[in-house]
Amino acid sequence: MCKILEEERREGRKEGSDRINELNRRLLKDGREVDILKSLKEPGYQERLLMEYNL
To answer: Where are the alpha helices (DSSP H) in the chain?
Structure first.
């Protein structure tokens, strides 16, 4: 049971990391470097950007 939970946790972290990486790629493509920096300081802002980009 613990191995299953550990694997699910690992998968969840990877999915979260993939979402943030995709957000950063899209922001760079759109010339929004300032938003990347702001999202690092403000998690709520990062969530708004994720919603804006449907991620």
So the answer is: 2-29, 33-41, 43-52
